[in-house]
Amino acid sequence: MEDNLNLVGAVDQGTSSTRFLVFNAKTAELLCYHQVEVTQLFPHEGWVEEDPIEILRSVHECIEKTTENLLKMNICLSAIKAIGITNQRETTVVWDKLTGQPLHNAIVWCDNRTQSTVDQLVAKTPNKSQDYLKKYCGLPISTYFSAVKIRWLMDNRPDVKKAIDEGTALFGTIDSWLLWNLTGGAKGGGKHVTDITNASRTMLFNIRTQQWDDELLNFFSIPASVLPEVRSSSEHYGDMCEGVLSGVPLCGCLGDQHAALVGHTCFSPGDAKNTYGTGCFLLQNTGKRPITSKHGLLTTVAYKLGKDEPTHYALEGSIAVAGGLVRWLRDNLGIIKESADIEELARTVNGSGEVVFVPAFSGLYAPYWRTDARGTVCGITQWTTKAHIAYAALEAVCFQTREIIEAMRQDACDVPEDGKSPSTTSLQVDGGMTNNQLLMQLQANILGCTVLKPSMPESTALGAAMAAGKAIGVWSLKPEDLTTVTFERFEPTISQDQIASHYAKWKLAVQKSMGWHYSSETDSNLPGTDSQGTTSANHIFPGTVFIMSTFLLLAFTRDTS
Ligand SMILES: Nc1ncnc2c1ncn2[C@@H]1O[C@H](COP(=O)(O)OP(=O)(O)O)[C@@H](O)[C@H]1O
Ligand SMILES: O=P(O)(O)OC[C@H](O)CO
């Protein structure tokens, strides 16, 4: 058996699936992995939950299967020197610290049950602005982030409220839940920790002071006692307490999008990557200073790779629905059997036939931040087939990405002294959807730039492994030590003029998706306020539509009589 290797494991706990992967720390080569799909529960319209126990079991299963494969490859498990964790972010778990049992299913990041909570929170800000807390946490008040989900649990689940009040409950994002359990949990020794990137997605963490913030905790009325300790993304959190890897140090932790930024070695200001998973997230490194977006992007911590290392920040464009739309076509419409089948189906037609699909299932995230938007399919004719819908679904992911790139370019123009926008000539990509060659080609065409897919596309897990390997000194992140990455390239095959009218239709369809849903508790507060706190002419409600149509009908009758 080969045992003079330095290997690093990575748990990648995503929204759709869990993976455990093992990398060679010297060459960054992926040796083997195992993947298990995670059940998503939809108990009510707009609600998305996952079972924290199933998530934990999936991690153990993936570790067992991957290590079995390593042994079959004649590799000794003692070669695994460290483990990193990367995870779906914002997803909220509250559990009993004495029994280790979750007090509720995990409320997943894209769940929008908290819409009326958001409306009430915005209504209590002095300027009635979604952006009121941005100066502290870099985020708009939205259904997306953890604090709003904790607030909902406290308001709607008396047992959760009681446990929090009595000090027996712990809160964590998925990284915390896993780290606490893998280091001993209720049996003893469980470490209640999180890393700075995950903390920066809760709305309770001040990204400038880099601490939990009393003003934010007061705003949401959440006690600090439930929160994990915040650590850097690369340091020793504790050791695996059981199983075949018992004793191996857990020493890398980043939210999945931040891990992908590291995996792509986006270490310089201006470097950017786009990850196509359940959602789609474009992050651009902005260096050691947080930059506030004026164009609907989030400010977030990019990474802090060691206790004594500087914190780097990023601008982020978050798209709620990307691969999730493919899963919806599979599970809800049944027009494909496997996610990968969408490519074959879409290739049976030459285009979407002018169909535009805006998948605003959870409202629209960046750059609009409109909780009132809902999914819309425009341009259907008698001629439309499921293949056109599939094609439009793939285009939707690409058009959303284009909107994020445009917002980043606009922000870069606003800060000319250090404003660097993502390269206009290429975009680095990763994530499950990038296996779709048609999607990658459409993305190159719609952006008018080269799309670069690394030949080893598990960038998220790679980033977590790099952070863990760095913490124990087996993985050097010095530029001269980084291994050369080879890419598959997708070049634009049509001109931007050819795409312009289609993009204009996308923009029109986005407007049509807005103003569809509003929560009854706060109807009177809603019309006309966008994320910049300005009045939007496009924010038209059904009642308004009725009044306007009656007015037009009357006017028309009068003119022609
Ligand atoms: N070949 C494909 N074409 C289109 N979508 C795909 C393909 N393969 C996977 N997907 C979608 O990508 C998502 C899974 O990607 P992954 O990066 O594993 O997600 P996550 O990190 O959210 O768990 C699923 O939503 C799935 O529907
Ligand atoms: O599961 P993914 O890869 O789509 O990532 C989810 C994000 O972390 C949510 O913010």
TrEMBL record:
Q: Which GO terms describe its biological process?
A: glycerol catabolic process; glycerol-3-phosphate biosynthetic process; triglyceride metabolic process
Enzymatic class: transferase
**Name of a matching Pfam family:** FGGY_N
Pathway recorded for this protein: Polyol metabolism; glycerol degradation via glycerol kinase pathway; sn-glycerol 3-phosphate from glycerol: step 1/1
Give the EC number(s) under which this enzyme is classified: 2.7.1.30
Query: What are the alphabetically sorted keywords of the record?
Result: ATP-binding, Glycerol metabolism, Kinase, Nucleotide-binding, Transferase
Q: Which PROSITE patterns does the entry mention?
A: FGGY_KINASES_1, FGGY_KINASES_2
Residue span of the signal peptide, if any? none
The terms describing its cellular component in GO are: mitochondrion
Domain of life, per UniProt, equals: Eukaryota
Task: Spell out the molecular function terms from Gene Ontology.
Answer: ATP binding; glycerol kinase activity
Q: What CDD domains does this protein map onto?
A: ASKHA_NBD_FGGY_GK1-3-like
- Residue intervals of the Carbohydrate kinase FGGY C-terminal domain: 273-471
Catalyzed reaction equations: glycerol + ATP = sn-glycerol 3-phosphate + ADP + H(+)
Could you tell me which Gene3D superfamilies the record lists for this protein?
3.30.420.40
Which residues are in the Carbohydrate kinase FGGY N-terminal domain?
A: 8-263
The record's InterPro entries line, in alphabetical order, gives:
ATPase_NBD, Carb_kinase_FGGY, Carb_kinase_FGGY_CS, FGGY_C, FGGY_N, GK1-3_metazoan-type, Glycerol_kin
What is the similarity comment for this entry? Belongs to the FGGY kinase family.
Q: What is this protein called?
A: Probable glycerol kinase
Instruction: Name the species this protein comes from.
Output: Phallusia mammillata
